[in-house]
Amino acid sequence: MTEGTMQTGTLVSLALYFILMLAIGLYAWRKSTSDSAGYLLAGRNLPPSVAALSAGASDMSGWLLLGLPGALYASGLVEAWIGIGLFVGAVANWIVVAPRLRQQTEELGNALTIPEFLANRFPSQAVALRVTSAVIIVLFFTVYTAAGLVGGGKLFETAFAGMLPGMGMSDYMLGIWITAGVVLAYTMIGGFLAVSLTDFVQGCIMVVALVLMPLVVLTGGVDLGSASEAAAAAGNSDYLALFGGLTAIGWLSAVTWGLGYFGQPHIIVRFMAIRSIPEVKTARNIGLTWMGVALIGAIGVGIAGRAYAEANGVAVEDPETIFIVLATLLFHPLITGFLLAALLAAIMSTISSQLLVSSSSLTEDFYRLFLRKHASEREAVNVGRVCVLLVALAAIVIARDPESQVLGLVANAWAGFGAAFGPLILFALTWDRMTGAGAVAGLVTGAVVVVAWIALGWNGAFLGGPGVYEIIPGFIAASLAIWLVSKATARGEEPVAQAG
């Protein structure tokens, strides 16, 4: 089979996948885009299975099939601690945040966005909270969306080099535009329901691909020892050791990725849309099972991929493309198309969620708050669609550099949200003595500390030693700010609104 025939078969599978996503967008357009509640939250009527897989798929993004396997390919099993930390954080998020957020957002003014919930929860600081949180959401989600587009660019650059008509663009940039174009189409048309339903389908595709690929590699007679031997020759003798060469700071920086879950608007907004509070438990069980299988599969892709490459003399210039390399070498073109569709699913599910959350903040927390307080529902939905487009264009500009690393961009944005919103959401849902001033202090402190930590390079090297992941100082500083300022302002502030 010629290379051209293989690429054509792969393109056919991808084209069918794109058509399916657009069809779902059209279905959602007919069902739930007549008002803001439908467009931004699907009328709070998501079945538990859709909510669970939507939360998981929008969470994982391209880093699950690119960044995490790439890190394991390059550094070994020690990078699995990121996945372990994430799983523990997800468990806590489903138990602590999900039921409370579902209940309180509905009871406190039927809030459609996280900024609106915070404003209703702390009415004395309503405007400050809505504006500040909306700015942080749009800023970090633009970077986060760019990380997804980098993944789309790398996919097309690696799998279809020189085949697609470039229209004056590189394969990388063409991949970015194709990825963004399809996501924009179904997100702008169908809103939250389209995003959630496509996430459900994409989550199913992702988990099948992540189970299938390492099984095929390992049943093909590849010995994991070849990966360990090659790594040892390169100076890493602990390639298959979970604690190999791991320092206390390195371990802490890896597992504290889990702290970020409490503050990811594109994930926790799924909790707000679950059909009923009793169904949160069902969604939790489905979501955590999906996540556990997906993470194990991603770890398997990285380690088994290194073993396959070493055993067969395959040159992998960019470790983050190991999933793409294996997909093109090991499978029939139609199956390759399915596997690459899984990668696109991981990328697109997160991008669409981030675009919609950014759009909702721009629409509800800027446009309706300052420009058109009495805008009609139809007008608000149309403004939301325009905002989706604007955020996507900004992300495309950021993603233009083909040397961008998916995991690095995701790490920065994940830490920004985790530190700014994580402590704020946890305290707001569980501590009735928290004040509006404390909420603002925590929000600003978390974001500023993360940005400053990155700017100073302390996430790469700190006090002559290894770097400290920026979410750690950001989360601690934000928590202290909330507690101290709330204590100081408790008597001078109006009573905080409470659900129920």
TrEMBL record:
Major localization class: membrane
GO cellular component: plasma membrane
Locations listed in the record: Cell inner membrane; Cell membrane
Stated role: Catalyzes the sodium-dependent uptake of extracellular L-proline.
Keyword Ion transport: yes
GO molecular function: L-proline transmembrane transporter activity; proline:sodium symporter activity; sodium ion binding
Membrane-traversing stretches: 6-29, 80-98, 127-152, 172-193, 200-219, 239-262, 283-309, 321-347, 380-400, 406-429, 436-456, 468-485
Cross-referenced PANTHER family: SODIUM/PROLINE SYMPORTER-RELATED, SODIUM_PROLINE SYMPORTER
Reaction catalysis annotation: L-proline(in) + Na(+)(in) = L-proline(out) + Na(+)(out)
Keyword set, alphabetical order: Amino-acid transport, Cell inner membrane, Cell membrane, Ion transport, Membrane, Sodium, Sodium transport, Symport, Transmembrane, Transmembrane helix, Transport
Family according to the record: Belongs to the sodium:solute symporter (SSF) (TC 2.A.21) family.
Topological relation to the membrane, as annotated: Multi-pass membrane protein
Pfam family, one: SSF
Protein name: Sodium/proline symporter
Recorded superkingdom: Bacteria
GO BP field: proline transport
